[in-house]
Design brief:
By secondary structure, this protein is α/β, with parallel strands linked by helices. It contains ten helices and 20 strands. The protein has helices at residues 16-27, 61-80, 100-115, 128-131, 153-164, 208-214, 246-252, 289-302, 348-363, 379-384, and strands at 5-6, 9-12, 32-36, 51-52, 93-97, 121-124, 141-145, 149-150, 167-170, 174-179, 185-190, 193-196, 200-202, 222-231, 241-244, 259-266, 272-278, 311-321, 328-331, 338-342. Helix 1 packs parallel to helix 5 (153-164), helix 1 (16-27) runs parallel beside helix 9 and helix 2 (61-80) packs across helix 9.
C-alpha cells in the first residue's frame, strides 16, 4: 500500500459531478484528490446523454439550480475554451404535445417556468416545421426552450478533471471514511492506501448510499435504470432536443415500474440518441428488448423517418434517485467535514456546475449562491425521526 498523503479535500467519484466539485474546489485554492474505483466517467456519466436542461423542471429549488448551472456551464466553456472539445451545443429544446389538452397543460407548465426566469416560447402547430422539419404531422403544438443545451458527458468530465489540476486517483476503492475521536472526518481509506483530509465530498452518484454508509450518515440513494438507443451517423435531421410532454411527468414520478416517453436528439458526431426509460430494478444490467422496442416506437412516432434508420447499439445506465427528486448537496450535520453532492437522478450532467460551485463555496467558508436547505443531506433522517 502507498504511503498516506494529505490534501484539503477528497472528492469520491470521478463522474461529471465529482469532476465539477474538483474543478471549483481547486479554483478556490484548495488541494484536491479525486478518487474513483474505475476510470473517469466510467459509470453513470458515461451512460448519459449529456443534457443541460431547464425545460423539464418545475419552479423550485431544482430549477433554480439548473438556471445557475446553465450560466456556469456557459462561463466555463468560455473561460476554458472547451466548447468544441466537449461538444457543447446551445441548441435548445422543443417539447411537443399531441393533443389540445396536452398542449394546454404544457403551456400552463411553461407559464410557471417563465415566472421563474426560464425562456419558454409557445410554438403553434403550423410553425413546428420551421423548428423541426421532420417532425410527424398532426401534433397540437409545442414549447421551445432556447436555454436547453447539450454536451458529450464523458468528454466533459475528462476535460474538467484535466483542467482542474486535481490529483486523480483512479482504480482505488474507498473502503472507509476515516474519523477523528470526536467523529469529524480526517480522510479516507482505500484499497491502495489512506488519504488524509479534513473534508470529504461524496460525489459517488448512484453509489452515493454506499459512501454515505461508510461515513455513518445514511442517504437513501437508489438506482433507476434507463436505456438509450444510438442510431447510425446521419446528417443533421433533428435540430433540437425533442421530447413528448409526458416525459416531464415520468421524471417526477415515484413509481418503480417501467415508464417510457419519447426523447430524441442529434449529436455533433452524427448519431441520434433515443430515450427515455425509467425503472427501479436495482443494479440489474440485463438487456430488455421490450424497453428498447418501446423507445424505438416512441421515437418513430415523433420522427417517422427514423423507421428507416439503423440502430447501431443500445446502452444502459443507473440514475441516482432520491425519494423527493432533489439531490443531496452540502455539509452533513451528522458528520463534520462530510459533504454530499449526489442524487441528481438524470439531471447530474446539467446540474454539475452549480453543484460543484456550491460545494466549493462551503469548503472555502463562503456563502453559497443558493439556499442549501432544500438539499440538506440529513433531511430524510429528520423525516423519519
Amino acid at each position: 500500500m502507498s504511503k498516506p498523503f494529505t490534501c484539503d479535500v477528497v472528492v469520491i467519484g470521478a463522474g461529471m459531478v465529482g469532476a465539477a466539485c474538483a474543478w471549483y474546489a481547486a479554483r478556490a485554492g484548495l488541494e484536491v484528490a479525486l478518487v474513483d474505483r474505475g476510470p473517469v466517467a466510467g459509470r453513470t456519466t458515461g451512460a448519459g446523454e449529456g443534457n443541460l436542461l431547464v425545460s423539464d423542471k418545475e419552479p423550485g429549488p431544482e430549477l433554480d439550480l439548473a438556471l445557475l448551472s446553465g450560466r456556469l456551464w456557459a462561463d466555463l466553456v468560455q473561460e476554458e475554451g472547451l466548447g468544441p472539445a466537449i461538444e457543447y451545443e446551445a441548441k435548445g429544446g422543443v417539447v411537443v404535445a399531441a393533443t389540445p389538452q396536452g398542449l394546454a397543460a404544457l403551456e400552463a407548465f411553461a407559464a410557471g417556468q417563465r415566472a421563474a426566469g426560464v425562456s419558454a416560447e409557445p410554438v403553434a402547430a403550423d410553425q413546428l416545421s420551421d423548428l423541426e422539419p421532420h417532425l410527424a404531422p398532426g401534433l397540437a403544438g409545442a414549447v421551445h426552450y432556447p436555454q436547453d443545451t447539450q454536451v458529450m458527458p464523458a468528454l466533459a468530465a475528462a476535460h474538467l478533471v484535466r483542467v482542474s489540476g486535481a490529483r486523480l486517483l483512479t482504480g482505488r476503492t474507498v473502503t472507509e471514511v476515516l474519523r477523528t475521536a470526536d467523529g469529524a472526518v480526517r480522510g479516507v481509506r482505500t484499497d491502495r492506501g489512506d488519504i488524509h483530509a479534513p473534508a470529504v465530498v461524496n460525489a459517488a452518484g448512484t453509489w452515493g448510499a454506499v459512501v454515505a454508509d461508510l461515513a455513518g450518515a445514511p442517504l437513501p440513494v437508489l438506482p433507476r435504470r434507463g436505456f438509450v438507443l444510438v442510431t447510425e451517423p446521419l446528417p443533421m435531421m433533428v435540430r433540437h432536443k425533442v421530447y413528448a410532454a409526458d416525459y416531464v411527468a415520468d421524471v417526477a414520478s415515484d413509481s418503480a415500474a417501467l415508464q417510457t416517453s419519447p426523447v430524441v436528439e442529434g449529436t455533433a458526431a452524427g448519431p441520434i440518441l433515443i430515450g427515455a426509460s425509467r425503472e427501479r430494478v436495482g443494479f440489474d444490467r440485463s438487456f430488455s428488448l421490450p424497453v428498447v422496442r418501446a423507445l424505438a416506437a416512441g421515437a418513430t412516432g415523433l420522427f417517422p423517418f427514423l423507421a428507416g434508420v439503423r440502430a447501431l447499439r443500445t446502452y444502459l445506465g443507473f440514475r441516482p434517485y432520491l425519494p423527493d427528486h432533489l439531490p443531496a448537496i452540502g455539509p452533513d450535520p451528522r458528520v463534520p467535514g462530510l459533504l454530499h453532492a449526489c442524487g441528481h437522478e438524470g439531471a447530474g450532467i446539467g446540474l454539475a456546475t452549480g453543484t460543484g460551485q456550491l460545494i466549493a463555496r462551503v469548503l472555502a467558508g463562503e456563502t453559497p449562491d443558493l439556499d442549501l436547505a432544500p438539499f440538506r443531506p440529513d433531511r430524510f433522517s429528520q423525516e423519519a425521526a
